[in-house]
Amino acid sequence: MYPGTTGTRPATELSTSDRPRLARHVRLSFCRTRQRPILQLPETVVVLNRSGADILELCDGRHTVAEIVAGLGARYQTVPGDEVRRFLTRLVARHWVELADG
């Protein structure tokens, strides 16, 4: 667990049953100037592409990774589940996304 948090754990490899959510210090937003979705972090802004934003919109701690992949599949024809897991794994490693205990 991260210091000062409960119900979260770090991950070296995401499972389809993990329930990702944005960390408390991270906010998904839309930048009007750039006309792009962004992640706002302390002293940092990360510009996202649409698919990255779509993944993170579903990271609410209720949806499993499998449900996120299925939800994206309803929007797009092909959704490589392994790419979604790699994307989320990188964000978990940076402490931008946490995994809620099921």
TrEMBL record:
Q: Identify the InterPro entries for this entry.
A: PQQD, PqqD_bac, PqqD_sf
- Give this protein's Gene Ontology molecular function annotations: quinone binding
One GO biological process term is: pyrroloquinoline quinone biosynthetic process
Q: From the UniProt record, give the pathway where this protein acts.
A: Cofactor biosynthesis; pyrroloquinoline quinone biosynthesis
What UniProt keywords apply to this chain's record, in alphabetical order? PQQ biosynthesis
Pfam families reported in the protein's UniProt record:
PqqD (PF05402)
Q: Which Gene3D superfamilies match?
A: Coenzyme PQQ synthesis protein D (PqqD)
* The keyword Disulfide bond appears for this protein: no
* Record note on quaternary structure: Monomer. Interacts with PqqE.
The protein in question is named Pyrroloquinoline quinone biosynthesis protein PqqD
Give the organism, scientific name.
Prauserella flavalba
